[in-house]
Amino acid sequence: MKKIQFPRKEFSNITKIILSVLAPYLIYVGCVKIADEKIQITLDVSKTSLDFIYSGAEESFSVTSNYQWTVNNDASWLTVSPSSGSNNGSVKVIANPNTNTDSRTATITVSNNVQGVTGKTINVIQQPLPSINNYNETINGQNLSMIAVQGGLFTMGCTSEQGGDCWDDETPTHQVTLSDFYMGKYEVTQGLWNAVMGNNPSYFPKGDNYPVENVSWNDIVGTSGATMVIKGITYYANGFIYKLNQLTGKQYRLPTEAEWEYAARGGQSSNKYKYSGSNTVGNVAWYSDNSDGRTHAVGGKSPNELGICDMSGNVHEWCSDWFGVYSSNAQTNPTGPSSGSNRVFRGGGWYYGARSARVSYRNGITPDYRYDSIGFRLARSSN
Ligand SMILES: [Ca+2]
After folding, report:
1. Of 6, 75, 155, 189, which one's alpha carbon is 20 to 30 angstroms from that of 108?
2. What pLDDT band is residue 112 in, cutting at 50, 70 and 90?
3. Residue 13 pLDDT grade (very low, low, confident, very high; cuts 50, 70, 90)
4. Cα-Cα-Cα-Cα dihedral of 231, 236, 242, 243, to 10°?
5. What percent of the chain has pLDDT over 70?
6. Alpha carbon of 362 to ligand 1 centroid (Å)
7. What CATH class is the domain 135-381?
8. What is the mean pLDDT of residues 333-344?
9. What is the pTM of this model?
């Protein structure tokens, strides 16, 4: 039998010529395709948002990648550096001060300009210039300094920086939103008390710049005579605050417990310290280990982020609220329980340990109680 002869499959001469001309390109295209399949380009950033205080600051984020990348930002008030890099790196972001009374936003984009790889976006917000300002006034020759506290949202209670030092009454944590207010830069001094009341009830009579103590909540708020109601508290004509308000024409009051804690934490400028202005208690507080068994002149330790002094230590500070248990519900401008038996005091004192000087520490006692480790600080609403 005759074998069937299959024709050899061969390229024609013309095809050979074309293939020989195209060969280098085909090899190149093949290699690129293989390379694309082998290298998975990755890109990630450590933050998706940045929140700047109104006065400006420096923040940073890190880039994780295996390729080149570039950074773009759409706001002239932001500086990012470097504007490009490769592989893993860190990017600094500097915000200029915001001189507007509105907040402002910007977008930072990190990309590596490779098709199919999604760029990363960081949303930036900067807080507005506060609409209230610090001020001083003089009452019968005694200075009163008030710090403007821009309102906002914070977490009240036993937050993580408190470590294992919290007591049960500091839980549960809860979200609190506050309006703008003023808080006294210092504890009310013996000098100011005497200028208003004409006496000095303090156990440690050392001079005008020492904190007044041995004053009950009732001594401050009053118990008889004409009245004025401020933020839910009735102030009476025989109390310190009513008399101060007669002299100044303003509506000073005790801080609420939430205002006290928000200010102690540094408000919107908070660095999330355990004590008011530091994680090292001795930098900001007169307390059992450094007080030498007595009060000290106000402002002797470093101020906190807002410029407020001695919120940790020296003397405890009365607040306007009845002492109650916390709820986990979010609250706006809370004023505490509607009734109770003890009024709140905060911040620790010269006789007490570091655990009492924490920003979330709280305690309470009957409003007629006088003690040489409890004084107070003034507050005032912004409107
Ligand atoms: Ca204090």
Report:
1. 155
2. confident
3. low
4. -170
5. 90
6. 12
7. alpha beta
8. 97
9. 0.72
Query: In the structure encoding, which two tokens stand for residue 224, read together?
Result: 């008889």
**Ligand 1 center–CA 303 separation, angstroms:** 12
> What pLDDT is stored for residue 9 in this prediction?
52
CA of 351 to the centre of ligand 1 (A): 12
The Cα 307–Cα 146 span in angstroms is 10
* Domain range annotation of the chain: 8-40, 43-126, 135-381
What CATH number does domain 43-126 carry, 3.20.20.190, 1.10.620.20, 3.40.250.10, 2.60.40.10?
2.60.40.10
Best CA proximity match to 290, nearest among 376, 361, 348, 370: 348
Q: Could you tell me the distance, in angstroms and rounded to a whole number, from the CA of residue 316 to the centre of ligand 1?
A: 5
Distance in Å, CA 96 to ligand 1 centroid:
34
Task: Give the model confidence (pLDDT) of 230-269 as tens digits.
Answer: 999 999 999 999 999 999 999 999 999 999 999 999 999 9
Q: Kindly report whether the peptide bond that precedes residue 367 is cis, defined as omega within 30 degrees of 0.
A: no
